[in-house]
Specification:
- The chain is built from three helices and seven strands.
- It is α+β, with helices and mostly antiparallel strands.
- The radius of gyration is 15 Å and the shape is globular.
- It starts with a strand and ends with a strand.
Amino acid sequence: MTITYEKAVPADAGRIEELFEEMLRTIFRTEDVSAYGDAGTDGYFGGEDVIFVAREGDFIAAFVSVEVHRGEEYGDYIYLNDFCVTEGYRNRGIGSRLMDMAEEYAASLTISTVALHVEKSNEGARRLYGRRGYGVFRDDGSRVLMTKTI
């Protein structure tokens, strides 16, 4: 089956929450992720903040949530808040395509900076972001803020 990419709709919130929990389990290497809260998808439907998903049929295999920040200290930018490709779908270019969509979305809003946090221990993600042109902007303890100008 073919993977399709699109903006999420409110009916996708339950599956996005499942993927958010999978992301937390992967990052923090624990099954108990209850202390981390939920994905908080409500603010992503109807405004500039969006979630992009990758679907195979009706199954959502991945998502990235995109927050739009305007007039901030560092200027306008988008922030890739949460990002997960479910196990079994990784290393197929799905995450890269979702990042492309987020960057294209930023460009459509005439925003030229994309930012994201990544855990220092998540070496695979750090390598992916580095290959895509993201550089470390700031060290935030257990994670780094990476940015890219598009």
